[in-house]
Amino acid sequence: MGLAVLLSGGFITIFDLFVVNIAIPSMQRTLDASFAQINFIIVAYELAYGVLLIAGSRLGDRLGRRRLFVLGMLGFALTSALCGLAPDANALIAARVLQGVAAAMLFPQVYALIRVSYDGHARRRAFGLLGMTLGLAAIAGQVLGGWIVHADLFGLSWRVIFLVNVPLGLAAWKLARHLPESREPSASSMDWPGAALAGLGLGLLMLALIEGPARHWPAWTLASAMLAVAALALFVRAQRRIGAAGGAPLVDMTLLTQPRFATGCLLVLLVFSTAAALFLCYALLMQTGLGVDALTAGSIFAPASVGFVAGSMLAPRLVARYGTPAIALAALLYGGATTALMLQVGAASGALAPWSLVPVLVWLGAAQGAVNTPLVNLALGLVPDHQAGMAAGVVSTLQQVGAALGVAAAGMLFGGALEAGAGLPAGDRYAQAFASALQFNVAAIALSALLLWRLGRRG
Predict the structure, then answer these.
(1) Which of 233, 250, 97, 105 is nearest to 188 (CA)?
(2) H and E: helices and strands count for the chain
(3) What is the pLDDT of residues 143-185, one digit of tens each?
(4) Distance separating alpha carbons of residues 139 and 303, to the nearest angstrom
(5) Residues 6+ apart with CB under 8 A from 276
(6) Are 392 and 381 contacting, i.e. CB atoms less than 8 angstroms apart?
(7) Nearby residues of 119 by Cβ (< 8 Å), 6 or more positions away
């Protein structure tokens, strides 16, 4: 029972990362949301989640992991209700920020409680089940989410994707009280000013990247970008000062002065930026551009999720045998699949047959799984053991920050192409916008393959 409760916490946080994408076209219609607002609906959750992951982990160590899990579950249920009841796009964005905060409290405790509650084979089995659960959450986000939106249960349309979290979260909150408590009294204190600076800097950067192109770069968006750079520079300076004084910074900057680990961090940022960008653009292409319903759109993408799981299972064996070059080859295959998808959609334009995308999506999913799964282990293996905990927090944060940056960058290209194609049929406009947005993915993956090749040459 205890493991099932922990797995449910992992499931709902990852499910909500994926399910929103398939519901975005429905949200845009019912809330009369702008393209910038739908970007923020995705980015708000990912950014709050990513920036506060380290804070959630440290609070669990100090205050009790079960306590933070219980509070996180309750918070996730309540903020999901706020999302489902949001009267307009701005209210939904605010609720998504709060939902991301709750997820950041909740998710680190899942890993920590499994680690301290199980040993040996039982621990390996528990982490294996967790990995399977997270994979199923990604698939369910596409298929189950598509069915929920298409079924229009109780006439609530997309709102049910959030409201379904409420009974699940409340049940897990109630059952979690029976989990054993654990804490680490000697754990480092939390650097709240550092977290605030990082959140402010990244938030202002997202504001500039998303609103700037949509509003043709008025002065305030440029000022937002400059303030973002200043806040992030202050964050780096403050972290160095805390570290030099023997304190516990949010991010140990000596980690990022290690060239190999810094390269690993850049790889994580680049690779994880591509997935979120693809999900958003795919949903808009299929539903708004081609008029496909949410269930069909999710079903078409589901084989890609199956391919991702297969690639994830195969990758560790290949990396164990061939090392980093195996990940570089997977990145090349991932880039090839992305390029093929971009060319297929761009060539067919509005005449695209949606189900014809299944073969290239399976190829893309398998290659992506073969890159993503070993990439995190690669990055963590580039630091000494005594820095592994801090490195894990940095890498986990960069996964979410990368996803937010990817949505912003691809959204710039997508929105620009939509505007340029004004007057064309919807299918043609959205197909060209999709192909334009995937240029970001192709460039990010190509740079990742080059970096992986260089890491492999350096041993």
Answers:
(1) 250
(2) 16, 0
(3) 888 888 888 888 888 999 999 889 988 888 888 777 778 777 6
(4) 9
(5) 21, 42, 46, 403, 404, 406, 407
(6) no
(7) none
Residue position matching structure tokens 């589901």: 302
Whole-structure pTM value = 0.86
In this structure, the number of other CB atoms found within 10 A of the CB of residue 356 comes to 12
Burial 427-451 (b: 16+ CB within 10 A, else e): bbbbbbbbbbbbbbbbebbbbbbeb
- C-alpha distances (whole Å) from 212 to each of 36, 229, 232, 413, 434 are 9, 16, 19, 12, 20
Q: Which residues contact 124 (CB under 8 A, 6 or more apart)?
A: none
Q: Taking a C-beta distance cutoff of 8 angstroms, is the pair 22, 146 a contact?
A: yes
Q: How remote is the C-alpha of 324 from its chain's centroid? A: 24
Sign, CA dihedral 395-397-403-406, equals negative
* 312 neighbors 159 (Cβ within 8 angstroms): no
Could you give the CA distance from residue 213 to residue 446 in angstroms, rounded to a whole number? 25
Calculate the dihedral angle through the C-alpha atoms of 265, 271, 275, 280, rounding to the nearest 10 degrees.
80
* Closest of 39, 23, 281 to residue 152, by C-alpha: 23
- Give pLDDT tens digits for 199-224: 899 889 988 988 888 788 899 999 99
- Give the chain's radius of gyration (CA, Å): 21
Collapsed DSSP state (helix, strand, coil) of residue 300: helix
